[in-house]
Structures are given as C-alpha cells and as structure tokens.
Amino acid sequence: MISGSVLAFGKEALQGTVHCMDIAANVSTNLRKGVLEYCVLALIGNGEMYGLDIAGKLRGHGLLTSEGTLYPLLARLRRSGLVDSSWRESGQGAPRKYYSLTPAGQDALAGFVDAWDVFSHSVSDILKPVGGQPS
Amino acid sequence: MMNNADDPNISKYLHELATRLGHLPAEQSEEILQGIKDHISDALARGNGSVADVLGSLGSPEEVARGVAGDRVPAASPPWRTSTLWVVLSTMFLVFGGFIVGFGWFFGLAGLWMGTCWKLWEKIVGTVALPGGIAGALVVVTVPVSYEVVTSDSGAMPPTVFGIESLGTTLPIIATVATLALPLVVGVYLLTVGLRREQSTMRAAQLTA
C-alpha cells in the first residue's frame, strides 16, 4: 500500500503515505501497550535482569520508545506479585536492583504465550489475503 | 561520572517527575523514582552517551507519569484507606487506643500499616515509638525497678514487699516527661503528614477526574 502511493508521485498520494505511516505508528503504539508487560516477563524469565538492561532490550526491539515508562510498569508488576526484586552487588561498584520472575509471573507468562500463539495465528490467517493482494 | 551524576538537569528531571507522581502513595512513587535514578547512573557509568542523551531516551517526566495513569490496574489503593477519617482514627487509636482495654492500640497499628499515607520508615517509627501509645508509656514509667523484700527469720510471716520504686520516680523528671510525650509527638507527626498526603491525593484525583 505504502509503496504503491509513493510510486504514484502525486501530492495526494504522498499525503496518503504520511497518513498510512501515522496509522502504522498509532497501531503499533496500541499493540505495544497490550503486550509490553508480557515482554518484560518473558525477558526476566530468561534470567534475572536489572532495569537498564530490560529497557535496552525492549528499546532494541522497538517495543519501548520512552525507557522511563518501564519503571512504573516494573513497580506495578512487582506490586501484583508477578515480579520480584532484590538488591545485589554487581561486578562494578554500586549494588543493583535485579528483577526476577515469581511463580505467579511464570504462570502469567505461560498463559500469555498460549493466548498469543492462538491470537497471532488467527490474525495472520485473516490478514494473508490482504498481504498477498497486488497493489 | 560523579560530575555527570550531579548534573542539575538530572535533579531537575527527578524533581519534575516526583511532582508528577505526587498523587501516588509515597512508596510507589519512591520505587519509580529509585528505578529512574539507578537507570540514569547505570547508563552514565556505562557510557551510554551524555546526560542529555540518557534523559532523552527516558522520555519526559510527563510521559513516565502518564505510564502510571495508563495502568490497567488502579494505581491508587482503595480510597477509604486514603481518607481523612482513616488517617485520624488510625493515629487516635495509636496514641490513645491503649486505654481501650489495652486492645485499641492494635487497631491503630493495623490502620497505620494498611494506610496509604505513610512511608515505610514512618510506619516503623509509629510502631516502635511507643508500643501501646500513651498507655504504654504510662506502663513504662510506672514499672517497678527496685523494691525491698522482708522475710521474717522464723518464716512464720509471709514475705512483705515495700519501698517499691518505679522507673518514673528514679529517672530524671525530663526523661519521664519525654517518655510520656514521645507517643504524642509521633502521633501528631503521623497525623500531620498523613492528612497532608491525603489532601494532595484528593486534589490530584479531582484534577484527573
């Protein structure tokens, strides 16, 4: 859709491209909101991590634009008992707060993995004809 | 690194964030602020760019605070635990509850720990100074510290106790007064900060409503 508009070279078509990009940005913002906390659980589930590393990983995957918003999320996950935190000496200087998954967090993550599997397959199946359409 | 950590932009950022998180219970906002603080110092120590870069990647304090507002789970605890009545009753029970068949203080203690308007250290101070409130302090100052026991030589008479001296009479008067005043001072402090935080929480709730 986007490449088709650009090829047309018209002013209106270019505006259409910008509009499309707006929609894409908006969609990914909304999608991120729903999955971010489970991505955090999944990252921590691979081994305890501290804030800066979690933020870096999420940002690297384009899941987090403002790294600071991770901390209200971590605080909420800790309050709801999905994540645990402990202060630990790090190799370099000051002790760091490490986050790990609680058994409840593991359950929540497993539940999400199952639901996501079904959900992503369903959406992909439905989108297939759209993606395959010559534009 | 030390120069970076003292950067006025960092303290400005943290101050602004603290203001925007002001409506949250103290422990929640402190947890978030601590996370951000550690993030900044870790990122600078690792050489992830300048102070401006690190603060830029965090997003504005407004965005961070909005992340809290967007939480699905209500961030604030049930309002009745943040109410004026809760704060007043908890502190009253804590200070004077000991007089209610010795049990009232425990209501105050429960109210203090379940309340949302006090920080952890304030809860600890409220608990240890002084157990039982003013009633507890009265027990402490009247506790006997010395007495004489007189037994008759033959053992025919039961031992007699006299000359009981309490802690209150042996300690300097100032110490006795301080012991009695301690629960009252702590109570007034808890009431003041509790009510102040309760008001700011209510104001914030009105603004967002």
List the helices and strands and how they pair.
The complex is a heterodimer of chains A (135) and B (209).
Chain A: H1 2-8, H2 11-45, E1 49-50, H3 51-60, H4 70-79, E2 83-88, E3 96-101, H5 103-132
Antiparallel strand pairs in A: 1-3, 2-3
Chain B: H1 2-5, H2 8-20, H3 26-45, H4 51-58, H5 61-69, H6 84-96, H7 104-114, H8 120-128, H9 133-142, E1 144-150, E2 160-166, H10 167-170, H11 173-208
Architecture overview:
- By secondary structure, chain A is mostly helical.
- Chain A has 5 helices and 3 strands.
- Chain A has helices at residues 2-8, 11-45, 51-60, 70-79, 103-132, and strands spanning 49-50, 83-88, 96-101.
- Chain A has a 3-stranded antiparallel beta sheet with strand order 1-3-2.
- With 209 residues, chain B is mainly alpha-helical.
- Chain B has 11 helices and 2 strands; from the N terminus they run αααααααααββαα.
- Chain B has helices at 2-5, 8-20, 26-45, 51-58, 61-69, 84-96, 104-114, 120-128, 133-142, 167-170, 173-208; strands at 144-150, 160-166.
- A two-stranded antiparallel ribbon of chain B has the order 1-2.
- The longest helix of chain B is centred in the C-terminal third of the chain and has 36 residues, at 173-208.
- Mean pLDDT of chain B is 80; it is low at 72-77.
- Chains A and B meet through helix 3 and helix 4 of A and helix 3 and helix 5 of B.
